[in-house]
Amino acid sequence: MRRRTVLTACGVGVAGLAGCTDDTRSRTRTDNRADPPATATTPTPEPAVSVTFDSLQPARVALDTDYLSISAAERQHLFVAVESEGRLARDAFAFQFDGETYAPLEPLARGTYRAYGDGAYGEETSNGWLLFSLPEQGDGSTARLSWPGGEWTPDESVRARLTAPEPPMAATVSMPERAENGSAFTLSVEVTNEGGIGGRFVAAVSRYGPQVAATPVERVSAFVRPGESVTRTYSQTLHADTDDVGDGEPDATYEFQWVGSGAERKVGLT
Question: Which residues fall within 8 angstroms of residue 201, CB to CB, at 6 or more apart?
Answer without folding.
Answer: 169, 171, 191, 193, 220, 221, 222, 223, 224, 230, 258
